[in-house]
Structure formats: structure tokens, C-alpha cells
Amino acid sequence: MIHIGEFARLGQVSMRMLRHYDQLGLLTPDHVDPWTGYRSYSAGQLARLNRIVALKDLGFPLAQVAVLLDGDLDGDELRVMLHERRMELERDHEQARQRLAGVEARLHLIDKEHDMSIEYVTKSLPAVRLAACSADLEEGQAIGEVVGPLFERAGAAVARAGGSLRTAIASYDVRPAGMHITVGYAHDGPAPEGTAIVELPAVEQAVCCVHLGAMTGIGAAWQSLVQHAETSGWDLLGPCREDYLQAEGEDQSSWVTELQQPVRR
Fold it and tell me: Which of 35, 58, 151, 182 could hold 171 in an S-S bridge, CB 3.0 to 4.6 Å?
């Protein structure tokens, strides 16, 4: 089972929105703890969440989204609808560009739901000492809006101190209050000004895969990894990591990122 905070991260929505979908009967948690009220979801529910957000971004009211989903709307039908809406948005004025980008991102997630080309490995992760910057993800804020500036700050500080920028890592820790993000560079010396030393502990077992290309597609890779882990009988642990093996230059098409999800039986 996936805690609501982790499920929100994987689906790239807020926990408040998930609770709203639950109240409307659009997406009911797979399990609600009778004592604490904590909501938990299964990885299989990500497919329904992708469709809800895609249809909402197409402009359908949530009441109509429920009707469409209950009518067993399949991926091919949804894909046709998304392409038709994309053509309309392209004829629209400049303000429609943000909505178009959202539709494209969700279409990418749906296309990747049954991607069998990703290879997964289970391995241990070494402890890493980072010169890092951290922040809490605010309600409604996209992860990329936080990670990019944090890396810029940490990278500039490490470079000024003469450190290496070779090993870049982001860590995502879902807490009751929300997600805490830590990014930084492997560093042996004292903390450069503007950073703090963060010790990422060794991990006995983690399910890992490699994402090739831009960060706009990394959400699909994370969803696939979590679905693979769940169907393989693993329980998810946190925090998870992204190890940026190749992340140089503005063009992200050549970037190589390893996704690392701690697990246990």
C-alpha cells in the first residue's frame, strides 16, 4: 500500500486534491485506517488518477469525468480525445499553452502504463554525504519548481568551495506535513556557505531503474517503478532518491537519471 503523501507525489497532484476526489467518489483509497483515518492507495490506482487529471485538464467538469470513467473509457479512446483537444488548444491564444503542456504530460503517463522496456534491478545503496539545500514542497507547487532552484543554489555553493559537482542526488521524504526535498552533491569537506551537510544512510535493498531524457518524463518512470515493486511483493520505504548520472547542459534529452526506491519484503 502507498501512503497518500507518496501517492500524491507519484501522481503529481496534491493530497488536498486526492481527498477531494475521494469525497466525490472519483478515486476512493484502497484502504482507510479505522483508527487514524490515514488513507492508502494501491499502485494500480495510478491509472485511474492519470485519467481523472487528463480529463479534468481537457476541460471536463468532474461530474462528467465520473460518467466517462464509469463508462470504462479505455486508453485508446482517451488518447483520441487528448489528441483532438490538443489540436483545439494549438489554435487557441497564447494563454492555452500551459493547459496543453499538462495534457501532454498526462498523455505521456498513460502511454507508459504498460511499458515493458524498462529494466529494474534490486540492489543496496551506499551511504552518501551531501552538501545540500532543502525545502518543503508547498501546496500546489510542482516538484520541478523546487528541485531546479535548490540544485542551482547547492551547485554554486559547492563550486565556490572548490568541490566536485560529479555526484548529484535528490532525496524525497514524504512526511505527515508534506514532502521534504533535499538536493546536493557528494562532498567530503565542511559544508560550503549556504548549504548543510546531510547524511543519506545506506539502504539494504532498493528497486532501481534508469530514466533517459528530460525531467518532464520522469513521473512516468516513477509510476512504472512503483507498480513493478508492488506487483513484485515489495513494501515501499522512504525516502526515495534520484541519482543524476548525466545531467549536463540545458538540453535534457541526453540526461541519465537512476531512480532509487528503498523497499523491504
Answer: 182
- What CA–CA distance (Å, rounded) separates 183 from 78? 36
What are the boundaries of each domain within the chain? Answer: 2-111, 121-264
CATH superfamily of 121-264: Regulatory factor, effector binding domain (3.20.80.10)
Cell 507547487 belongs to residue: 141
For residue 176, the number of C-alpha atoms closer than 13 Å in the C-beta half-sphere is 3
The span from the CA of 91 to the CA of 230, in Å, is 42
CA proximity to 118, closest of 221, 219, 45: 221
Nearest to 215 by CA among 183, 179, 180: 183
Q: List Cβ neighbours of 187 (8 Å cut-off, separation of 6 or more).
A: 129, 130, 131, 158, 163, 164, 197
CA-nearest of 189, 202, 11 to 106 is 11
- Give the pairing type, strands 178-186 and 168-175: antiparallel
262 Cβ neighbours under 8 A, 6+ residues apart: 125, 203, 205, 206, 236, 237, 238, 239, 240
Ranges assigned E (strand) in 66-215: 121-125, 128-136, 168-175, 178-186, 196-200, 203-212
What pLDDT is stored for residue 59 in this prediction? 82
| Residues 113/107, Cβ–Cβ less than 8 Å | no
Rounded CA-CA distance 68/52 in Å is 9
Per-residue pLDDT of 156-208, as tens digits, reads 999 999 999 999 999 999 988 889 999 999 999 999 999 999 999 999 999 99
